[in-house]
Design brief:
Blueprint (H helix, E strand, L loop, with lengths): L14 E3 L2 E3 L8 H8 L2 E2 L2 H11 L5 H4 L3 E5 L1 H10 L3 E7 L8 H17 L3 E5 L1 H7 L4 H16 L8 E5 H4 L2 H13 L2 H8 L7 H5 L1 H5 L18 E7 L3 H10 L9 E5 L27 H11 L8 H7 L7 H9 L3 H12 L5 H24 L3 H8 L15
Parallel strand pairs: 5-6, 5-8, 6-7, 8-9
Antiparallel strand pairs: 1-2, 3-4, 4-9
Helix pairs in contact: 2-4, 6-7, 14-18, 16-18
């Protein structure tokens, strides 16, 4: 099988799976070890350059700065695109909170770039069933959160003519369910325990869920979008903690007549308090939410964003900031578009000529603008707009098959 068995670590090593992310001894995630363990590949500069050449667009900031840093068969997607073959995008969200934080926005911001750059269709899965089972939410509450999260996702600006958003509770059935059964028959109980670390205490709903997240990788799961296009390739932008699902999927796909889905995978967005994993929706002070006011953002950054600056101004002037641990700099690496300005801040701050307060002030400006822009876009997403994105439209995504070259 393609994946190296992804069993929960027993010796205090880092744990990265779809439901838990923790570094060894409370430190930082070792992404090199993660790449080796999962068996994916590092996304190198040659692929970034190739994206620019094929699309005629500058690489997204997340590509330029290594936020999306690993992949599976992304080069094959680019090969196919260059030959004139088509592909579609698939990403998703597990709706467990009322509002999204900035970490949740990362895959959607990048997916919008991919959709615009390659002019391809997109399906977005809302796993309300998963969160109902893992978070002990009622079915009704899971569905309500999915509806609210869908509005935040739509606010990212996807092309409605090429985008289908669906919740599992509403859509699963028909061809989608047939593919789920095909996948389930190919994965033994021992294999799914090895991949996901399920125990005898987990209810059977958890064990049965992985095929649900697997089959949007197959175009026949969407007969109203891709009729007769069973050979269509799929590219999945996601955080690397979702990799176990798709290692399983990639093992099964050829056995049931489909291409293996390709993946492009991101780092975790760190908590305000430090880079020990990904942001936590359970701690409101660990994250900037898209519902935060300008005052909230200012207070959170000033009070909670871990600084790599020194204890005193004099010491800071002499030694400079430790950029490896400084959260304001790390956040600017995600969201400050201007490469020259970012390098200037790193140089001046690292040398001690710029103070922590100045860097935090710039970050507050950047985040406030980002959140305000998102809030305005979300306010325009009515229930009617949401329903249109989530409706089963027999459009066949015809425009999705035109290669712009």
């Amino acid at each position: 099988m393609e994946e190296k068995e992804d069993k929960r670590q027993q010796e205090g090593e880092q744990v990265v799976n779809p439901w838990e992310v923790s570094a060894k001894d409370g430190g930082k995630i070792d992404y090199d070890k993660l790449i080796d363990k999962f068996g994916c590949q590092r996304l190198d500069q040659s692929l970034v350059d190739r994206v620019q050449r094929l699309t005629g667009r500058p690489p997204h900031v997340f590509l330029r700065r290594g936020v999306f840093f690993a992949h599976r068969d992304f080069s094959e997607i680019l090969d196919a695109y260059e030959r004139g073959d088509k592909f579609y995008l698939y990403t998703g969200r597990g709706p467990s909170s009322e509002a999204l934080h900035l970490g949740h926005l990362i895959p959607f911001m990048f997916t919008k770039y991919l959709q615009d750059a390659f002019k391809v269709p997109l399906v977005i899965q809302l796993t309300d069933d998963e969160k109902c089972m893992w978070k002990n939410l009622s079915v009704e509450e899971s569905q309500r959160l999915a509806r609210e999260n869908a509005k935040d996702i739509i606010a990212c600006g996807f092309d409605i003519s090429k985008t289908f958003i669906f919740s599992d509770f509403d859509y699963v059935g028909g061809a989608f369910y047939k593919n789920m059964v095909k996948v389930a028959k190919c994965v033994t109980y021992n294999k799914v325990v090895g991949i996901f670390g399920f125990t005898g205490e987990d209810h059977i709903g958890k064990v049965s869920f992985p095929p649900v997240q697997a089959v949007p990788s197959f175009p026949s799961s969407f007969p109203h979008l891709f009729p007769g296009k069973d050979d269509l390739r799929c590219l999945i932008p996601c955080a690397i903690d979702q990799d176990p699902y798709f290692r399983m999927t990639r093992d099964v796909a050829p056995r049931i007549g489909y291409h293996k889905p390709a993946l492009i995978e991101s780092l975790f967005f760190p908590a305000l308090q430090g880079e020990t994993g990904k942001m936590s929706a359970s701690d409101p002070n660990s994250a900037i939410y898209v519902t935060d006011s300008a005052k909230d953002i200012k207070n959170k950054v000033n009070k909670h964003a871990f600084s790599g600056g020194q204890e005193s101004i004099q010491e800071h002037r002499n030694k400079g900031a430790n950029l490896e641990v400084d959260i304001p700099v790390k956040y600017l690496n995600f969201f400050l578009e201007d490469d020259a300005e970012l390098e200037h801040i790193k140089k001046e701050y690292g040398a001690g000529r710029m103070l922590t307060g100045e860097v935090k002030k710039r970050l507050i400006e950047v985040l406030t603008e980002l959140v305000e822009r998102h809030r305005r876009a979300r306010a325009a997403v009515t229930d009617e707009v949401r329903l249109l994105h989530c409706s089963v439209r027999f459009t066949h995504f015809i425009y999705g098959y035109s290669n712009p070259k």
